[in-house]
Amino acid sequence: MKTNQQLCAVLNLDESEPQLMPLTKRRAVAALPFGSRYRLIDFPLSSLYSAEVNSVAMFVRGSARALMDHVRSGYPWGMESTVGGGLFIHSGAEIKEALERLEPGQISSYYQDQIDFVKHSQKGYVVVMGSKMLCNVDIKGVLRSHIESQADITVVYKNVSRGFCLPDSIDNCLSFEVEGDSKITDLLPANELPKEETKMAIGMGIAIMSSETFIELTTEAANNRIKGDINVLIRYNLKKYTVHGYEYTGYLKNIETVSSYYDANMDLLDEDNYNALFYRSQPVITKVKNGAPTYYSKEANISNSQFASDCVINGTVEDSVVFRKVVIEKNAVIKRSLIMQGSKVAAGAELDYVILDKGVKIGPGVKLSGTKDEPLVIEKGREITVEKES
After folding, report:
1. Looking at domain 3-278, what is its CATH homologous superfamily?
2. What domain of life is recorded for the organism (predicted)?
């Protein structure tokens, strides 16, 4: 089965997560840096690469600059094709929607662009994905299951505990016709589940269907002014289509708050979590950046931490994730923190449960601390030269 001849992908990256601010102030959720050298978008793109999908459309609300700078032509993921493929980025959808005046029978450009892409791709099937559900999914396996089940739509889910989602989460959970069966009868927002339910089958925002079904579903959503991820669109059409579930058993994290983003990075310091996400049968690919190996001086004191290249480490780093081109000076102490690309921590500074966004400069002797549940975020490009007031 040659999936590159059958499958195209629509990446809905208009994910709005206000509880990720200020990390998403200047970037889409998909563009969030992760694991010292990746971005969240690398994971869906890598899954598509392993499934030999070379025709992909991205739909982004707000600023797409950081995302476009990272993915460029899509070359690392095999999408720089001159024959029947390519990476197509649509940004500023909310601006177009605010300005457009629709004629009777006309649908919004957001949905029309998706329909046009799928028609022009000339593929038999469409996979729809997002980026906030951090995972490493075997798309080939999902497509194979979808074809064998003869379902109209196949939705990917994972069985999780109730605490996986926030109490007010609107992420959809699946209900099955019979326990142990794969046929889905309902998709309920997590916050509508009965309180006595301690387990849930959380929809991961990933679905596969035929191109014809996708066009029907999208047209229906446009005509009825339905907005939301693919699970929302499917929920409104459960009586019309046969929907089956595909259980994913690998690592999964819902990146919906600063705390969950922090936790996902910290999870990588556990070897089992790292292997579950990165060392499956398919690789995780990112844009290559050449650089020198990280330098650790004799004064450096390192324990249980992850580093990218091009760093200079002269201080103490414990239980932390450090991105590219970071400088940590002598007698600086970093604990349980994320230090993003290009940041500098001066001598004598102390950080605990802190997230430094890109290019932050921390002055000598500055002491900053948050908590595990509420890590302190320092916005991109800031310079702090005196102790932050509590």
Report:
1. Spore Coat Polysaccharide Biosynthesis Protein SpsA; Chain A (3.90.550.10)
2. Bacteria
**pTM score, whole prediction:** 0.90
- What does pLDDT average to over the chain? 87
Taking a C-beta distance cutoff of 8 angstroms, is the pair 305, 269 a contact?
Answer: yes
Residue 216 and residue 222: Cα distance in Å, rounded? Answer: 10
Q: Is the pLDDT of residue 66 over 60?
A: yes
Q: Which residues pair with 175 in a beta bridge?
A: 186
Does the domain made of 295-384 have the CATH classification 3.20.20.140? no
Spell out the residues 6+ positions from residue 120 whose beta carbon is closer than 8 angstroms to its own.
none
Per-residue pLDDT band at 106 (split at 50, 70, 90): low
Place of tokens 């549940």: 373
The Cα angle at residue 173 between residues 172 and 175, in degrees rounded to 5 = 135
| Element housing 235 (H / E) | helix 230-235
User: Cis before residue 76, ω within 30 degrees of 0?
Assistant: no
